[in-house]
Amino acid sequence: MNNVSYANYLLNLTQYSVFEFRPKQDPANAWAIPIVTGHKYKVHWQNGLDFEQMQVTLSPHWAPEDKNVYLVHNFTDVRAKVDFITPLKDIVPNMTLVNKTSANWQTGDNVLYNQTERREIHYAINGKNKSRSFILMKGSRCIDSCLPAIAKQEFETTERLWSQPSTWPDGKVPIAG
Question: pLDDT digits over 49-66, tens only?
Answer without folding.
Answer: 667 888 888 888 889 999
